[in-house]
């Protein structure tokens, strides 16, 4: 019940209406779920009997298809007309089955978790405190952050993340143990004036080549002079400054002005690697949005659609659900699935191809949802080879999730990690697992055979969120499978955060 002035609004009827709709939706989904138990091969067989027996000629869809084709192709002969009608009706029926199958097996789709204004305040406080703690532990007196994601982590200030990171320094943050000053892009100072994590907002000075041209050296020296004076006023002279994503001349200039310059990636990545309870809720919400978007992608997947068209359906859904952007465009089909990392393009998805997809979404509240799935375009079932690739990839993911535990060293993980068969080693994914928070993050966990060359040690800790990776495809092979799960490390268990199911049609 809501009270407004002298008027009384009773919401009970509305609530009941919503409950009724929810009840109806659940019943429909149950019917769809039961219908989805029919094997696809059996359904297609029944459709073919229906088509080639001629029974479809009595249907309304047949008559509509005849009229549409006569309009579209007035000169077509009768034999070709009948062929096209049969194909049209057949594909329509199969499409209906696939839609029902998707809806009937969409129990993983859910509404976002509730996060309050107080949760957001606690989240901001935790992140800022964590970063300052790491700065103190590593004897860093001040950080100058120019990476937009790092600025967002420290303050929750958000503004043109990709543009400002690419045009550094154009927007940057000076952070000490008791002061935070955001130098905001000109004309944007008002965007962050509500944030308690920022003590002062100033207009930034851009020292990029595109902004300065051949005067960039002069501009960089002016920038260094201004920032040096600010730092001396804040922390004193000859102190230790952490930098990331900055022009080389700026680091050199600060050193010439008496500061010790170190890499700010160390404190920021260590801080970001351990998530608060509020951060975990944000991550789960981002995953829910991504899973919903993948449902739309999967529902739209059929032979004849282009990779770009399919990817745009996913991206549109992400934006509609308050996500930010996708860091990559990794959706590929058929021969483009091997080797991996071939970006989405104009290619038309053909019949019975693998369609591999990596999400890489900077989603709700700026948190990353990162998991991979591989689909099949149909209309037939996957081949024996396609199923083999899929099951091997899933075995790798399952094995590596099962060995992860809190307190395990990175080295121990690599030693116990799934051993990639020789014929798939050349095209292996470059990591076995990696951290995941507001982007792909520390740590990187390497394959057994790569640890000696690329690996480093550390400890898997409570409230780390990790992504366990797999890519399986032979060198010079026709296709490959990409799978990935996002997980949360707890003290006594591993929680799988990616709820989107693996494809039953591939599994043994």
Keywords:
disordered N terminus; alpha+beta; five-stranded antiparallel β-sheet; 19 strands; Creatine Amidinohydrolase, Chain A, domain 1; elongated; 508 residues; Creatine Amidinohydrolase
In CATH, the architecture of the largest domain is: Alpha-Beta Complex
CATH fourth-tier homologous superfamily of the largest domain: Creatinase/methionine aminopeptidase superfamily
How large a portion of the residues is in β-strands, by DSSP E?
15-25%
Question: Number of helical runs?
Answer: 17
Tally of distinct domains: 3
Number of strands: 19
Largest sheet, spatial ordering of strands: 6-5-4-3-7-8
Oligomer: single chain
Low-confidence sequence ranges: 1-23
Q: Over the alpha carbons, how many angstroms does the gyration radius reach? A: 27 Å
What coarse outline follows from CA principal-axis ratios? elongated
Give me the secondary-structure category.
alpha+beta
Describe the structure.
The chain has 508 residues and is an alpha+beta fold. It has three domains: 36-104; 117-273, Creatinase/prolidase N-terminal domain (Creatine Amidinohydrolase, Chain A, domain 1), CATH 3.40.350; 277-496, Creatinase/methionine aminopeptidase superfamily (Creatine Amidinohydrolase), CATH 3.90.230.10. The chain contains 17 helices and 19 strands. It has a six-stranded mixed beta sheet. Helix 3 packs across helix 4.
